[in-house]
Predict the 3D structure of the following.
Amino acid sequence: MELMTSLLLLIVFARLLGRLFVRMNQPEIVGEILAGVILGPAVLGYISPSLHGLSGIAELAVFLVILAAGLEMNFKDIIDVFKGKNVFFSIIGFLVPFILATIFGVIFQLGAASSVFLGLIISITALPVALRMLRDFGWLESEIASYTMATVIVADVLALLALGVVLQIPESGDFMEVATAIFLIGGKLMVLITFIASINIIIEKLIDRGFHLERVPEKIIATFGNEALFGMVVLFVLIFGSVSESLGFHFIIGAFFGALMIDRKFFLARRYKELEKTIESVSAGFLAPVFFAYVGLEFNFAAIESYWFVFALLALAVASKWLAGYLGAKVVGISSTTGLAVGTALCGRGVMDLVVANIAFEKGFIDQGLFSSLVIVGALSTLIGPQIYRRFVMSADTNSKAVKQ
C-alpha cells in the first residue's frame, strides 16, 4: 500500500477509534494504538511499519508529542519541586517502580540493558492521562494532585536523563570500558544541563531587568505573519534538540527541556492561546494519532512468548506505583489513603513511556516481544488501575467512615 493511502487510513481509523474510547470514558490513546494493531501485521496486515517514509513521519510525530508534553509542564515547576517535601515523595515515586521493574527484568533474564529500559518505562507516568484521572476522581484541587504532578515531573525528567546515559553505554565491554563510558557520558550530560540552566538564567535575568520578552514574538509576527509564532517555537525547541544530538544524546531529551523553557509570560495571553490551539491541532489532530497508531503497527501477538509474563508485568506496573505512593506517604507524613490515590493517578501511561519504549525498540535494546508486552501493559494498567482503586480502596474507606459514624 502507498504511503499517502496508508497515512490516510491510519489517521482516519486512529481518530475514529480514539473518539470511540473517549465516549466510553477511556483514554483516547488506547483507541489510537488499537487502530494500528488492527491495520498492522498483527491483524489485517494492510500497513507495514517498515513502509518507506512512515518511520520518518512517526519520528516527526514524536517531536510534536514531546513538544506538547513539555509545554504542559514548566521549568519553574521543576525547580519548585526540589524546594519542598514533595521532592522526597517524587524521588520515591520514580525509584520504587524503576528498581522493582529492573529487578523483575533481571529475574526473567531479559539482560542488563533491557532490564534498565524496563525500569525506565514502568517508572514513567503520562501527564495528560494522570490529569484526566485526577479530574475524574475530583482530586484536581486536593493535595493528591500536588504530589501527583510533582512526581510526574520528576519521574519524566529523571527518566529522560537516564535514557540519555543508557543509550550511550556500550553493549559489550569490560568493567573499565563501561565505567569510562559512564564517566564521559556524565560529563556530556553536565554540559547539556549547564546549557539548559544557563539559558534559563539568562531569560530570568532579562525579565528581572525589565526586558519585555513578549515583545520579541510580537515583532516576529508583525514581520512574518501570525503563522510565524508556531515556527518560532518549533525553532527554539529544535535548537535544544540539536544541542542534545550533537552531544550524542537522543534529540527528544533536548527538545523536552526546550519545551519546558517556554513560559506563558513570553507571550501576550491571546498569543499563547493561539500557540496552544495550533500545537493541539497539529499534534492531537494529526501527528500524535499517527505516532500511537505506528506503535500499534509495531505490535506483534506472535512475538509474545508468555502471557503469564505479561500478566506478571501488568501486576508489577500497577503494584509498584501503589507501593511508591504508600511509601512516599509514610516518608512525608500524609495518610496512606492519599498515598494510594497518588499511586493510582501515577498508573496513567501512554505517552512518554511509549516514546521511550519505541526508542528502545528501534535501537535494539528491547526485542519485539518485550515491546509488545509493554504496549499491552501501558494500556491495561491505565484502564484497570483506577477501577481497582474504586472497588477496593475507596469502598473500604467509605465503609470505614460509615462504621465510625
User: Anything to note?
Assistant: Residues 342 and 392 are 15 Å apart (CA to CA).
